[in-house]
Amino acid sequence: MNEPVSGTFRDPALAPAARLADLIGRLTLPEKIALLHQYQAPVERLGLKPFRTGTEALHGLAWLGPATVFPQAIGLASTWNPELVRAVGAATADELLAYHRKDPEGVGRNVWAPVVNPLRDPRWGRNEEGYSEDPWLTGVLATAYALGLRGEGPGPMKTAPTLKHFLGYNNETDRCTTSSGLPPRVLHEYELPAYRPALESGAAVAVMPSYNLVNGRPAHLSPLIGDVLRRWAPDDILVVSDAYAPGNLTALQGYHADPPTAYAHAIKAGVDSFTQDDDRPEETIRHITAALDRGLLTEADIDAAVRHALSIRLRLGEFDPAEPYEDVTEAVVNSPEHQRLAREAVTQAFVLLKNQGILPLRAPVKVAVIGQLADTLMEDWYSGTLPYAVTARQGLAERGETVFCEGVDRIALHTPDGHVLAGEEPVGAPLVVGPVADRPELSWFDLFDWGGGAYALRAAANGRYVSAGDDGVLVNDQPGPNGWEVRQTFRLEERSRGALALRHISTGRYVTAEGGTLRLTDDADAAAVLTPELVASGPERAAAAAAEADVAIVVAGDHPLVNGRETEDRTELDLPAAQEAVLRAVHAANPATVLVISSGYPFAVTWAEENLPALLWSAHGGQEYGHALADVLYGDADPGGRLTQTWYRAACELPDLLDYDIIAADATYLYFRGAPLYPFGHGLSYTAFEYSGITATVDGQKVIGTVTVTNTGDRPGVEVVQFYTHQQRSRVKQPLRRLRGFERLRLDPGESRTVTIEIDLADLAFWDVTRGRFVVEDAPHKLMAGRSARDIRLSAPFHVPGERIPPRDPYARPLAAADNDEYDGVALVDAAKERGDAVRAEAAGSWIGFREVDFGEGAAHCVITAASTEGAVVTIRLDDPLFGHVAATVPVPRTRHRHAPAEIPCSVAGAEGLHDLYVVFENEGVTLSALTLHPARVRP
C-alpha cells in the first residue's frame, strides 16, 4: 500500500475542504470541464479514475444482472417500518459494492434513489416509485432508505444516494413541456418538506431535478436548488441532471436559444453533472467551453460545480490510500440473509383492506389460485433481475392442495384468407395467415387485459408473447411485455360485425396481413380486419376451478410496464375489465372468494369491496412474494401493512392531473372531503385493538401526546398507531388532518403499551403568504390517535401559543402576485428567466385576490409590474372580483416579451380601511408580477 502524500488531496489526515481545494488547484480548466458530465473522464497524471453517476437502486440493485429484488418502493413504504426500509437500503448498497468491485467503471457508486415525489395523484405512471402522498412520511422513509444506502458509522460512504425528482413532478403526460403550478403554500408545506429530512441529516448527498417546468421555469434551472436545497445540506451536494434533460432546455422546452446559454444557466442554477448523450461527453464539453468563451460562465462557476462532484468522490473514499469495502464480495448478492430480508419486507408490506372472517385460512383447505398474476412475478423498469421467483401459486401450493386457472380468454383470429397462425418453435416465428388444417392450436392466442385498452397476446403454440420487431413483423418470441419501449401490447379497435383491427401501442401503427405475413403499417385503411373466435372463456374456466375449491384466491392487478409506468399515466382507476369479469364469475361460483391485488398503485375496486368477504393488497413484492402471501393468508404473519395513499372510488373524485394545488383542489388525505374507498393509513389486523387514555400537553416548545393501545383479541397482532393533528382556527384553509407520528407495535393478546409522540411547535407552522415565512398561529388544535386518517379512535385538545397574523400592510412591501390568497383562471409562471414567480391570465375575467388588506387612511396610487405582448387592461376591485368597487383601471401597454414587464403607474380611488383586494384581468395573456401601493399620506 502506498502512503498518502502529505499535504495533498490524498492525505486523509487533512480536512475534506483542504483536500478538495488541493485537488481542484491541480486540475486544468479542460480537465475540470470534463468532470461535469455523467461519465467523468479520468485524469491519469493525478491518478484519478473514471467515474460514472447513476446506478439505479430503487428497491434493490437494478439493470446489472441477478440481484435481490425487494418490494417496490410503495410496498416498502406500506410497512410503516423505517428500520426495515433502512435494512433494505443497506442490503442494496452491499450488493452494489459487490458489482462495483467486479466492474468499477461500469457500476458507479452514485445511486439514483430514493424517489421522494409525494404521491399526489394515484394516476401518475410512476406511482410505484414513491413512498406516500404525505410529505412527512415520505421524508421519514426516504431518509431511512438513503441512510441504508449511504452506510452508517465512521469511514467512507458505501454509496452516494440521490433524491429524485426535484420538483413538482407527478405526471408523465407531456412531462417535459408541462408546468407544475406550485403556489407558495403548496411549495413550502407539501413539496419541499419531502426533500428536507434526507438532505438535512446527510443521508442523501445528491439531488436530481425533474423533467417538467415549475411555475413556467424548467426544474433544472430552479433557483431553489441553491436557495433551499444547498442550504439544508450540511455538506456539498451533487446535482445531477435527469437523462437527456439538458437537451430539452433548447429543444422541447425552447427556454433558451442555444445550448451554451442553457448549459451556463443550468450550472449557475446548480446543476453539476450533465446526463446527456449517454457515454459521449464531447457535446457537453463543447457547450460549456463555448459558454466560458462567451462570458456566460466564469472559471469560478466551473470550480463550484467541480467541487460538488469531487466532494462526493472524496466521501466515497476514492482518494484515500486504501480501497474501501474490499471485503464485500459477490457472496452478498442474493445471499440467504438478503432472501430472508426480502421475505420479511414483502410480508410486512401486505395490507388487509377488508376481512369478514374468511381470513386467516384454516388448513386443510383446497384453494383455487386464479388470475393473470397468480403464477407470475413482474419486474418493473427499476427492478433488478429476479434471481428466482416464488409466485402466488407456488407459495400456496407448498401449503396444501391447489387448483390453478389463469382466467384469460383463449381466442383465434381469422381473416377472409385464413387464420392467424403462430410458430411452435421456442424462438417463435413470424405470424402468418393460412389454413388451420389439423393443428388448431397454432391459431390459439391467450388474451391478457392490462387495462387502459392495452392487451397482450400469448401464442398457445409455444407460450411466447407476440411482439413487433424493428422490421415491423409480428413474431411470437417474447416472455412478456418488457423493456423501455414495450413492443408487445396492442389496442383492439372495433370494426363492423364484431371484427377488429390491432393497433400497436408503442408505434401507433396498425397490423396488416398483406402478403400473408402480419406486420405493421402506417396506413390505417390497410389494417387487417380480424374476426375473433372464442376458443375458451377465461371467466368460465375460472368459475369452474373456483367451484371445486373451498376458497378461491383471485390475484389481479397491473403489469408494471403497461398502462401506468414511466412515460404513461393512467386515465382511470378501474381494475382491467377482463380481470373484473373473472373476479365476478369466480365469486358467483364460490362466495368464499378473496381478491389479492398486486399493483404499484391504487385501484377503484368498489364492486369487490361491496361484495367480497376479503381483499388484500401489496405492491409487486419481488422474489419472495408467494411465500409471504401464503404466510399472511394462513395467519403465520399478521397483515401489518398500512396504506400510504388514499384509495378513491373513481377517478372523478380527483382533480385534473396537472392541478398541483392540493389546497385549492381539496386533494390528498390532507384536504379531501369525500368518503374514500380506503383512507390513508388504512389496514386491518387479524386481531382487535382498543385505544384509551389519550393526552396532549404543551410543554415548552413541544406538544407531548400519549395513548394506550391494547390487543383485545385472542392472537398476537401488529398495529400501526397513527397520530394526526388539526388546527381548528386559522387565517387560512388548514388540512383536515395531518400525520405527525406513528409507531408500529406487535402486541400479544391482552398486552397493552403506551405510545408517546413529541411534536415540535415549529412543525405546526404553515407558510404565511402575507409575509413570506413560516408562522405558528395562536390557535386551538386537536391531537387525534387512530388506525387511519379516517378511523380516529380518540382525540384530545391542546392550545398552541403563537402569533396572530395581522392584516396585510400593502405599503410595507409590494404585493407579489404569486402570494395571493385565492385565484381563478390564472397560471403561475416565471417572472424572469433566473428567478421570481408571476401569474398569467388564462382567460378574460380571471383574477387573483388578497384578503384583509389594510389601506389605512387610503391608497393614493399604485405601480403595477405587468407584461402583455398584445396589450391588456387590468382592473383593481375591492371586496368582490365581479361586483366590487373599482379602485383603478389600468391599461397595460404592449411589451416586447413577457420577461420584460412594464411598470405602470395609476391612481387609486376609494381604497381606505380594511378590504379584500382583487386584481381582475380583462384580457387573457397578461402577466402580473407585483403591485406596489403608496399611501395617501406617509405613516408616522
UniProtKB/TrEMBL annotation:
<dbReference type="InterPro" id="IPR005084">
    <property type="entry name" value="CBM6"/>
</dbReference>
<dbReference type="InterPro" id="IPR001764">
    <property type="entry name" value="Glyco_hydro_3_N"/>
</dbReference>
<dbReference type="Pfam" id="PF14310">
    <property type="entry name" value="Fn3-like"/>
</dbReference>
<dbReference type="GO" id="GO:0030246">
    <property type="term" value="F:carbohydrate binding"/>
</dbReference>
<protein>
    <recommendedName>
        <fullName>Exo-alpha-(1-&gt;6)-L-arabinopyranosidase</fullName>
    </recommendedName>
</protein>
<feature type="domain" description="CBM6">
    <location>
        <begin position="813"/>
        <end position="934"/>
    </location>
</feature>
<dbReference type="InterPro" id="IPR002772">
    <property type="entry name" value="Glyco_hydro_3_C"/>
</dbReference>
<dbReference type="InterPro" id="IPR008979">
    <property type="entry name" value="Galactose-bd-like_sf"/>
</dbReference>
<comment type="function">
    <text>Catalyzes the hydrolysis of a non-reducing terminal alpha-L-arabinopyranosidic linkage in ginsenoside Rb2 (alpha-L-arabinopyranosyl-(1-&gt;6)-alpha-D-glucopyranosyl) to release alpha-D-glucopyranosyl (Rd). It is not able to hydrolyze alpha-L-arabinofuranosyl-(1-&gt;6)-alpha-D-glucopyranosyl (Rc).</text>
</comment>
<dbReference type="InterPro" id="IPR017853">
    <property type="entry name" value="GH"/>
</dbReference>
<dbReference type="Pfam" id="PF01915">
    <property type="entry name" value="Glyco_hydro_3_C"/>
</dbReference>
<dbReference type="InterPro" id="IPR044993">
    <property type="entry name" value="BXL"/>
</dbReference>
<dbReference type="InterPro" id="IPR008999">
    <property type="entry name" value="Actin-crosslinking"/>
</dbReference>
<comment type="similarity">
    <text>Belongs to the glycosyl hydrolase 3 family.</text>
</comment>
<keyword id="KW-0378">Hydrolase</keyword>
<dbReference type="InterPro" id="IPR036881">
    <property type="entry name" value="Glyco_hydro_3_C_sf"/>
</dbReference>
<dbReference type="GO" id="GO:0008422">
    <property type="term" value="F:beta-glucosidase activity"/>
</dbReference>
<dbReference type="GO" id="GO:0009044">
    <property type="term" value="F:xylan 1,4-beta-xylosidase activity"/>
</dbReference>
<keyword id="KW-0326">Glycosidase</keyword>
<dbReference type="InterPro" id="IPR013783">
    <property type="entry name" value="Ig-like_fold"/>
</dbReference>
<dbReference type="GO" id="GO:0046556">
    <property type="term" value="F:alpha-L-arabinofuranosidase activity"/>
</dbReference>
<dbReference type="InterPro" id="IPR036962">
    <property type="entry name" value="Glyco_hydro_3_N_sf"/>
</dbReference>
<dbReference type="GO" id="GO:0031222">
    <property type="term" value="P:arabinan catabolic process"/>
</dbReference>
<dbReference type="GO" id="GO:0045493">
    <property type="term" value="P:xylan catabolic process"/>
</dbReference>
<dbReference type="Pfam" id="PF03422">
    <property type="entry name" value="CBM_6"/>
</dbReference>
<dbReference type="Pfam" id="PF00933">
    <property type="entry name" value="Glyco_hydro_3"/>
</dbReference>
<dbReference type="InterPro" id="IPR006584">
    <property type="entry name" value="Cellulose-bd_IV"/>
</dbReference>
<keyword id="KW-0732">Signal</keyword>
<dbReference type="InterPro" id="IPR026891">
    <property type="entry name" value="Fn3-like"/>
</dbReference>
